[in-house]
Amino acid sequence: MAGLIVTLVIMIIIFSLLGWAVRFKQAYYLISGFNTMSEDEQRQLIQNGYPQKVGSLLICTAIGTLVLLPLLFTPFPYAFEVIFGFILLFLLGGFVYLSRYELKHKRKKGYIISISLLIIVVGGVALLMTFTYQDYEVILENKKMEITGMYGQQWPIDELKSVELLDEMPEIGFKTNGVGVGTLAKGHFNVKGYGNSLLYIFTDSNPIILIETSKKPIFLNNQSPTVTEDWFNKLRKYLQ
Protein backbone atom coordinates (compact mmCIF):
# COMPACT_ATOMS: atom_id res chain seq x y z
CA MET A 1 0.00 0.00 0.00
CA ALA A 2 2.80 2.42 0.89
CA GLY A 3 4.47 1.85 -2.47
CA LEU A 4 1.21 2.56 -4.29
CA ILE A 5 0.65 5.79 -2.36
CA VAL A 6 4.20 6.97 -3.06
CA THR A 7 3.78 6.16 -6.77
CA LEU A 8 0.54 8.13 -6.99
CA VAL A 9 2.03 11.10 -5.12
CA ILE A 10 4.97 11.14 -7.54
CA MET A 11 2.53 11.03 -10.48
CA ILE A 12 0.56 13.94 -9.00
CA ILE A 13 3.75 15.99 -8.63
CA ILE A 14 4.90 15.19 -12.19
CA PHE A 15 1.51 16.03 -13.72
CA SER A 16 1.35 19.24 -11.71
CA LEU A 17 4.83 20.43 -12.64
CA LEU A 18 4.47 19.56 -16.32
CA GLY A 19 1.02 21.15 -16.51
CA TRP A 20 2.20 24.29 -14.72
CA ALA A 21 5.27 24.62 -16.96
CA VAL A 22 3.25 24.22 -20.15
CA ARG A 23 0.21 26.24 -19.12
CA PHE A 24 1.82 29.17 -17.29
CA LYS A 25 5.47 29.20 -18.38
CA GLN A 26 4.87 28.47 -22.08
CA ALA A 27 7.25 25.50 -21.97
CA TYR A 28 5.62 24.14 -25.10
CA TYR A 29 8.76 22.19 -26.01
CA LEU A 30 7.67 19.66 -23.37
CA ILE A 31 4.81 18.60 -25.65
CA SER A 32 5.81 15.73 -27.91
CA GLY A 33 6.49 16.83 -31.49
CA PHE A 34 6.13 20.56 -30.85
CA ASN A 35 9.80 21.36 -31.43
CA THR A 36 9.86 19.53 -34.76
CA MET A 37 7.09 21.72 -36.21
CA SER A 38 7.75 24.77 -38.34
CA GLU A 39 7.44 28.18 -36.69
CA ASP A 40 4.21 28.79 -38.60
CA GLU A 41 2.71 25.51 -37.37
CA GLN A 42 3.78 26.27 -33.82
CA ARG A 43 2.16 29.70 -34.02
CA GLN A 44 -1.12 28.26 -35.37
CA LEU A 45 -1.16 25.62 -32.66
CA ILE A 46 -0.68 28.26 -29.96
CA GLN A 47 -3.44 30.41 -31.51
CA ASN A 48 -5.75 27.37 -31.41
CA GLY A 49 -4.98 27.02 -27.70
CA TYR A 50 -3.78 23.42 -28.01
CA PRO A 51 -0.63 23.56 -25.84
CA GLN A 52 -2.36 25.67 -23.19
CA LYS A 53 -5.17 23.11 -22.96
CA VAL A 54 -2.65 20.27 -22.71
CA GLY A 55 -1.21 22.02 -19.66
CA SER A 56 -4.68 22.44 -18.18
CA LEU A 57 -5.45 18.76 -18.82
CA LEU A 58 -2.35 17.67 -16.90
CA ILE A 59 -3.16 20.00 -13.99
CA CYS A 60 -6.77 18.75 -13.83
CA THR A 61 -5.52 15.15 -13.90
CA ALA A 62 -3.26 15.91 -10.93
CA ILE A 63 -6.09 17.60 -9.00
CA GLY A 64 -8.52 14.75 -9.71
CA THR A 65 -5.98 12.15 -8.61
CA LEU A 66 -5.29 14.11 -5.43
CA VAL A 67 -9.01 14.32 -4.64
CA LEU A 68 -9.41 10.55 -5.11
CA LEU A 69 -6.24 9.62 -3.19
CA PRO A 70 -7.97 9.46 0.25
CA LEU A 71 -10.00 6.50 -1.05
CA LEU A 72 -6.92 4.37 -0.39
CA PHE A 73 -7.32 5.04 3.34
CA THR A 74 -10.95 3.88 3.43
CA PRO A 75 -12.45 0.35 3.51
CA PHE A 76 -13.58 0.83 -0.11
CA PRO A 77 -12.13 -2.30 -1.84
CA TYR A 78 -11.77 -0.85 -5.34
CA ALA A 79 -9.96 2.39 -4.56
CA PHE A 80 -6.97 1.52 -6.76
CA GLU A 81 -9.17 0.65 -9.73
CA VAL A 82 -11.15 3.89 -9.39
CA ILE A 83 -8.01 6.08 -9.19
CA PHE A 84 -6.19 4.28 -12.01
CA GLY A 85 -9.33 4.26 -14.15
CA PHE A 86 -9.78 8.00 -13.64
CA ILE A 87 -6.18 8.76 -14.69
CA LEU A 88 -6.42 6.51 -17.72
CA LEU A 89 -9.81 7.64 -19.01
CA PHE A 90 -9.38 11.32 -18.15
CA LEU A 91 -6.01 11.61 -19.89
CA LEU A 92 -6.84 9.55 -22.96
CA GLY A 93 -10.33 11.01 -23.26
CA GLY A 94 -8.85 14.48 -22.82
CA PHE A 95 -6.42 14.00 -25.69
CA VAL A 96 -9.26 12.75 -27.91
CA TYR A 97 -11.12 15.99 -27.11
CA LEU A 98 -8.02 18.13 -27.67
CA SER A 99 -7.64 16.75 -31.20
CA ARG A 100 -10.17 19.40 -32.26
CA TYR A 101 -7.56 22.07 -31.48
CA GLU A 102 -4.88 20.43 -33.62
CA LEU A 103 -3.73 21.89 -36.92
CA LYS A 104 -6.49 21.49 -39.50
CA HIS A 105 -4.54 19.12 -41.73
CA LYS A 106 -3.66 16.96 -38.72
CA ARG A 107 -7.02 16.84 -36.95
CA LYS A 108 -8.38 13.76 -38.69
CA LYS A 109 -5.17 11.85 -38.09
CA GLY A 110 -5.13 13.09 -34.48
CA TYR A 111 -8.68 11.82 -33.88
CA ILE A 112 -7.86 8.44 -35.39
CA ILE A 113 -4.69 8.01 -33.35
CA SER A 114 -6.24 9.23 -30.07
CA ILE A 115 -9.40 7.13 -30.39
CA SER A 116 -7.44 4.05 -31.47
CA LEU A 117 -5.10 4.46 -28.51
CA LEU A 118 -8.05 4.88 -26.15
CA ILE A 119 -9.70 1.70 -27.46
CA ILE A 120 -6.48 -0.34 -27.36
CA VAL A 121 -5.44 0.75 -23.87
CA VAL A 122 -8.89 0.50 -22.28
CA GLY A 123 -9.52 -2.82 -24.03
CA GLY A 124 -6.16 -4.17 -22.90
CA VAL A 125 -6.72 -3.11 -19.30
CA ALA A 126 -10.22 -4.62 -19.36
CA LEU A 127 -8.85 -7.95 -20.60
CA LEU A 128 -6.10 -7.89 -17.98
CA MET A 129 -8.56 -7.16 -15.18
CA THR A 130 -10.89 -9.91 -16.43
CA PHE A 131 -8.02 -12.41 -16.44
CA THR A 132 -6.85 -11.19 -13.03
CA TYR A 133 -10.27 -11.70 -11.44
CA GLN A 134 -10.75 -15.08 -13.10
CA ASP A 135 -11.71 -17.71 -10.52
CA TYR A 136 -9.05 -20.18 -9.47
CA GLU A 137 -9.62 -23.78 -8.41
CA VAL A 138 -7.71 -26.36 -6.39
CA ILE A 139 -7.30 -29.66 -8.22
CA LEU A 140 -5.97 -32.74 -6.41
CA GLU A 141 -5.16 -35.71 -8.63
CA ASN A 142 -2.31 -37.89 -9.90
CA LYS A 143 -0.30 -37.18 -6.74
CA LYS A 144 -0.23 -33.49 -7.58
CA MET A 145 -1.90 -30.30 -6.39
CA GLU A 146 -2.76 -27.69 -9.00
CA ILE A 147 -4.04 -24.16 -8.51
CA THR A 148 -5.51 -22.84 -11.75
CA GLY A 149 -5.74 -19.32 -13.19
CA MET A 150 -3.23 -16.47 -13.21
CA TYR A 151 0.00 -17.46 -11.41
CA GLY A 152 -1.35 -21.00 -11.25
CA GLN A 153 1.10 -23.84 -10.68
CA GLN A 154 1.39 -27.55 -10.02
CA TRP A 155 3.18 -29.16 -7.07
CA PRO A 156 4.07 -32.84 -6.60
CA ILE A 157 2.46 -34.18 -3.45
CA ASP A 158 5.89 -34.83 -1.87
CA GLU A 159 6.63 -31.07 -1.96
CA LEU A 160 3.65 -30.32 0.30
CA LYS A 161 4.72 -30.56 3.93
CA SER A 162 1.67 -29.47 5.92
CA VAL A 163 -1.66 -27.64 5.70
CA GLU A 164 -3.19 -25.37 8.33
CA LEU A 165 -6.32 -23.25 8.57
CA LEU A 166 -5.66 -19.70 9.83
CA ASP A 167 -8.30 -17.41 11.28
CA GLU A 168 -6.88 -14.43 9.39
CA MET A 169 -4.19 -13.50 6.90
CA PRO A 170 -0.79 -12.43 8.33
CA GLU A 171 0.42 -8.97 7.37
CA ILE A 172 1.25 -8.73 3.67
CA GLY A 173 4.36 -6.74 2.82
CA PHE A 174 5.73 -5.75 -0.55
CA LYS A 175 4.87 -7.45 -3.84
CA THR A 176 7.74 -9.18 -5.68
CA ASN A 177 5.89 -10.59 -8.70
CA GLY A 178 2.13 -10.51 -8.57
CA VAL A 179 -1.05 -8.50 -8.78
CA GLY A 180 -2.83 -6.79 -5.92
CA VAL A 181 -6.06 -5.11 -6.97
CA GLY A 182 -8.97 -4.34 -4.69
CA THR A 183 -9.27 -7.20 -2.21
CA LEU A 184 -7.52 -9.72 -4.48
CA ALA A 185 -3.85 -10.70 -4.18
CA LYS A 186 -2.29 -13.23 -6.57
CA GLY A 187 1.33 -14.10 -7.04
CA HIS A 188 4.51 -13.62 -5.06
CA PHE A 189 4.41 -11.34 -2.00
CA ASN A 190 6.50 -10.92 1.11
CA VAL A 191 4.46 -11.94 4.16
CA LYS A 192 5.48 -10.96 7.69
CA GLY A 193 6.89 -13.96 9.53
CA TYR A 194 6.91 -16.16 6.41
CA GLY A 195 9.07 -14.28 3.89
CA ASN A 196 8.56 -14.71 0.15
CA SER A 197 5.21 -16.47 -0.28
CA LEU A 198 2.73 -17.39 -2.98
CA LEU A 199 -0.74 -15.88 -2.51
CA TYR A 200 -4.14 -16.71 -3.94
CA ILE A 201 -6.35 -14.79 -1.55
CA PHE A 202 -9.20 -12.37 -1.07
CA THR A 203 -8.04 -10.15 1.77
CA ASP A 204 -11.59 -9.40 2.93
CA SER A 205 -12.46 -13.05 3.41
CA ASN A 206 -11.45 -15.52 6.13
CA PRO A 207 -10.31 -18.18 6.97
CA ILE A 208 -7.00 -18.66 5.13
CA ILE A 209 -5.36 -21.94 4.15
CA LEU A 210 -1.60 -22.07 4.78
CA ILE A 211 0.24 -24.75 2.83
CA GLU A 212 3.88 -25.25 3.79
CA THR A 213 5.97 -26.57 0.90
CA SER A 214 9.63 -27.46 0.45
CA LYS A 215 10.14 -24.13 -1.36
CA LYS A 216 7.81 -21.40 -0.10
CA PRO A 217 4.52 -21.12 1.80
CA ILE A 218 1.24 -20.83 -0.09
CA PHE A 219 -1.69 -18.81 1.25
CA LEU A 220 -5.04 -19.67 -0.29
CA ASN A 221 -8.72 -18.95 0.18
CA ASN A 222 -12.00 -18.35 -1.61
CA GLN A 223 -14.52 -15.54 -1.25
CA SER A 224 -16.82 -18.16 0.25
CA PRO A 225 -15.64 -19.45 3.66
CA THR A 226 -17.50 -22.70 2.95
CA VAL A 227 -15.46 -23.32 -0.20
CA THR A 228 -12.23 -22.47 1.66
CA GLU A 229 -13.04 -24.98 4.41
CA ASP A 230 -13.93 -27.60 1.78
CA TRP A 231 -10.54 -27.07 0.09
CA PHE A 232 -8.83 -27.38 3.48
CA ASN A 233 -10.56 -30.66 4.34
CA LYS A 234 -9.69 -32.16 0.94
CA LEU A 235 -6.06 -31.03 1.24
CA ARG A 236 -5.74 -32.42 4.76
CA LYS A 237 -7.06 -35.82 3.66
CA TYR A 238 -4.89 -35.79 0.54
CA LEU A 239 -1.73 -35.22 2.58
CA GLN A 240 -2.47 -38.01 5.10
From TrEMBL:
Keywords for this protein: Membrane, Transmembrane, Transmembrane helix
Transcription keyword on record: no
Domain of life: Bacteria
Pfam families attached to this UniProt entry: DUF3784
Transmembrane segments: 6-24, 54-73, 79-98, 110-133
Protein name in UniProt: DUF3784 domain-containing protein
